[in-house]
Amino acid sequence: xxxxxxxxxxxxxxxxxxxxxxxxxxxxxxxxxxxxxxxxxxxxxxxxxxxxxxxxxxxxxxxxxxxxxxxxxxxxxxxxxxxxxxxxxxxxxxxxxxxxxxxxxxxxxxxxxxxxxxxxxxxxxxxxxxxxxxxxxxxxxxxxxxxxxxxxxxxxxxxxxxxxxxxxxxxxxxxxxxxxxxxxxxxxxxxxxxxxxxxxxxxxxxxxxxxxxxxxxxxxxxxxxxxxxxxxxxxxxxxxxxxxxxxxxxxxxxxxxxxxxxxxxxxxxxxxxxxxxxxxxxxxxxxxxxxxxxxxxxxxxxxxxxxxxxxxxxxxxxxxxxxxxxxxxxxxxxxxxxxxxxxxxxxxxxxxxxxxxxxxxxxxxxxxxxxxxxxxxxxxxxxxxxxxxxxxxxxxxxxxxxxxxxxxxxxxxxxxxxxxxxxxxxxxxxxxxxxxxxxxxxxx
Length: 444
Prior knowledge:
By secondary structure, the chain is mainly α. It contains 16 helices and no strands. The protein has helices at 6-36, 40-76, 80-107, 109-115, 120-136, 138-152, 157-179, 189-214, 225-261, 265-281, 283-301, 305-341, 345-357, 362-377, 381-433, 435-441. Helix 3 (80-107) runs antiparallel to helix 6. It is globular, with a radius of gyration of 22 Å.
């Protein structure tokens, strides 16, 4: 990451990450598919759990972003032993935080989901699923944070392979434990939670083994108290804003859904389908963002801020060109895509309209994603949080609200497009004129 040609390195790291992201998306899709076969009640119950589980996983992703930045910077300086102590101390903190959160969650399942609006009939199903989920979720957090440390070394293939195999294990166990196929017990919705937990266990063991025996980044003892607290402070400095950044998108989507709901059920249905397509169209951007942070952190740690900035600008230009090409293909295939999701003429029309307008700005949205990741890499996650907040709550939501008032659903789509264009231009200007200075500082 410090000397090889940048496009080749970033391409080599991004490819496996695409596989990993697809595996994670498939993980949730498989669970939802098999639980949906239990009936509408079970599907509704699992739907209620998504906002709650996302809070815990957002914390894990934030801790992973913080650890990746710290490890990349430390390895860039050639301090491998310090990196090993950072990983050990950070994993211990991750377990402590998630255990506290999961124990609190396990004790408040019924009142919390009643507050969220779940009926008494659903509460029993939710309790069966969430109790197992809460008590086993540390087995998910350890590989999530551990894999971030592995990616910081420049290896994106191994973490992606681990998550892909975990997704495969989950997909095999789901029907066996949910429906009681063969010698397996029929556990219903609880079986889905157990299958997920077993796949997490496999991922955790493999991730810890790699950290300990291949990378040499895991120790059996924690650092002395003063050094331990210093490591925790450094981790949380990046992890807390990064965790809140991860929570901004679902919060903004909830508000956006309210705006769409004011225009009718067909508009909501069309947006729901189009947003699923959007996730697929941005997979490369998500993967590239994931690998950019460790690349930037290692080069800044090694005293190569100009290389870190150049990599960010190369990725931004690539984002514009790639997403423009994807937009052209999407524009042509929009009617076919829309017909896959609905046979309602109005819904089809709205999906096609969305796919003809909004994806023009995905390259600019990708630039914001890339800048946010690079900022995490230089431990400036508070600025990353501000940029994401500005895009969503400063541009996108006001633009969608004004657009709805002036032009209905087409106005909303144009508002989203203009918001992404504006945020992307600001991200480009910040990357050109301010980012290298942050690399020199090593902090915001």
